[in-house]
Amino acid sequence: MGVLIRGEDVCRYFGGLAAVNHVSFEVNRGEIFGLIGPNGAGKTTLFRCITGVYQATSGRILFNEKDITRLMPHRICVMGVTNTHQVVKPFMDMTVLDNVRVGAFFGRGWVSKEVKDATKEAMRVLEFTGLAPRAGSLARNLTLPDRKRLEVARALATRPELLLLDEVVAGLNPTETDMMIALIRRLRESGITIIMVEHVMRAVLGVSDRVMVLSFGEKIAEGTPKEVYTDPEVIEAYLGKSYAAPQDQGNSAINR
Amino acid sequence: MQVKQALRSWKPWVGLAFLVFLLWVPASEIAGGYLQTLCFLTFLYVTLSTAWNILGGYAGQTSFGHATFYGLGAYTTTILVLRGVPPLMTMPLAGIIAALYALMWGYPCLRLRGQYFAIATIGVGEATRLLMLNLDDLIKDSELLKGFLQEGVLTGGATGLMLPTPEDIKSYAVGFYYGAMGLMFAALLISWWVKNSKFGLGLFAINMDIDAAETIGVNTVYYKNLALMLSAFMVGICGSVYAQYMFYIDPQTVFGFPMSIAMVLMPTIGGIGTLAGPVLGAVVYIVVQDRILTANLEWGAFKLSLSSLHLLLYGGLLVLIILFEPKGITGLQRRLARWWKKAGTRVTEKRTA
User: In chain B, how many domains are there?
Assistant: First the structure.
């Protein structure tokens, strides 16, 4: 166990707007950490601060006790932090295999310059994510669920220690959602720590070990899923009154 | 086995026959060396087109400023040769100086994206041309830089620079014919290698989605600059060869905007981002240019010299390509091949039925 990533008083301002305001968090190795909150709460902004796409205005982010606050995204990726994008960004005119191969080639700890080694690694990841049958298709010909899956596969190919999943379930139907949740569980079993942003409560409360709730850039709650969805402040700010069910029916709230 | 199978197809034989033909051109006297010059220019332009394609096609960064490298290569060689450096030694230097210049303006400009980068390169191209045009005047009063002038001349301003012509010009030209041919094959080899390497995969990723590429570990700044420098190096050497072959350069020709446009046009005609596209595009460009510049239309009293219209024609061609076949000739060829296959299966289906 032990802490894998720690945020200390992370702030990110856009002009006068505090998108992320003094947020501190700790994620342990091997954990699935959920990040929820209403639209505009700063979830994606916090993600981007972690991956280096945005620089935190103030505060520090430590990964494996190393300060990554001011590093470029590709450096952070090579250290072992990769994210998927909320709006999927596949390399449209490349095959699925090539998409994943980029991740394998440029990710953490890759030394071989041989294309065939990267291909082998990419195929392994495609098998794992269940995309292998589509390996030869162009990314632009994939359906949305497959594109989401490709997004995960490509990130996975970089061999991350920490994977940031930004709404990988959004837009999927219930069956596809179940498949994606199963994939996330298997990722954790393979030893990857996961932080996920999600609006689909069934997904995030069902798999997370701990959950953090953001609202208007500030942390309003943190704890186990059960602690969080019974927290009156969270219900007020995000979940809505329908979640304010009596304690003993709490599980039905997760499963809706 | 594979080799045997390959030899059964007609393709390698046509290629071989074509290669033999190209090797034989200088030995023949057809058209009084006209064909040789045309082929030489084609080799040179294939190299330019292939070089541009590494940055513009693979990495997707459209540069309208590649004439700067061509001109810099040409001027480096000419200036050094006039100061007694052996011509062949100046060629790698021309490439290196072009690559360093590429890094100098590439590093700031490549931070821009898409069309903004393209616009910036137009500015760089024009600024460089104007600088070379006025360089002598600019430095003639400077104590520090005056030393670079030779009899008051460094770049020669608008009048340009002349190189002395060798005595045996015929064998000199033949030497350059084979040299340019080797250069072309080297360029194609580099292009092929880039396409099938980690480097190329990174460039394609940048081309498709630069943000996604960055977050999965591609050092986009480094790769884009490396692609630009490699491209510039190759173009710089072409400029050097051009200067040595023509014995005369001036800023308008080698730094001019039409030169930059030519390097964008050729891969676009042939098929951006492919290996064969820039080759096909360059051949079409050279042949069409050659035909057009000498062609006249006549219908009775109506006379039209096409030489004044060739830019109009290229403009029209570019519009047509972008509208109907953005992948150029290679795209067209693929489309025809698919159509052909379909037509074929339809015929066999009818027969079996």
Answer: 1
Q: Would you state the pLDDT for residue A39?
A: 86
Please tell me the predicted confidence (pLDDT) of residue A247: 47
Does residue B77 lie within any of the structural domains?
A: yes
Position B285 in a domain: yes
Residue A4: name the closest of A56, A75, A79 by CA. Answer: A79
Q: How many whole angstroms separate alpha carbon B77 and alpha carbon B148?
A: 15
Q: What pLDDT does B31 receive?
A: 55
Domain extent listing, chain A? 1-80+161-247, 87-159
Tell whether B201 lies on the interface with A, counting CB pairs under 8 A: yes
The answer to whether the CB of B59 falls within 8 A of the CB of B221 is no
| pLDDT for the residue A171 | 85
User: Does residue B214 belong to the interface with chain A, where contact is any CB pair within 8 Å?
Assistant: yes
Q: Do B215 and A93 touch (CB under 8 A)?
A: no
Tell me what pLDDT residue B349 has.
54
| CATH number for region A1-80+161-247 | 3.40.50.300
How far apart CA B24 and CA B18 sit, in angstroms, is: 10
Residue stretches of chain A with pLDDT short of 50: 246-256
Considering only CB atoms, A91 lies closest to which of B196, B209, B221, namely B209
Q: What is the pLDDT, as a whole number, of residue B30?
A: 63
Q: Do B213 and A102 touch (CB under 8 A)?
A: yes
Contact A90 B198 (CB under 8 A): no
Give percent above pLDDT 70 in chain B: 93
Chain B residues lying within 8 Å of A142, measured CB to CB = none
Check A91 against B208: CB less than 8 A apart: yes
Q: In what order do the strands lie in the sheet with A81-83?
A: A81-83, A162-166, A193-197, A32-36, A210-215, A218-223
Q: What is the mean pLDDT of chain B?
A: 88
Q: How close A214 comes to chain B (CA, Å)?
A: 24
Determine what percent of chain B is predicted with pLDDT higher than 90. Answer: 53
What residues of chain B lie within 8 A of the CB of A77, using their CB? 215-217
DSSP letter (8 states) at residue A80: T
B111 interfaces chain A, CB cutoff of 8 Å:
no
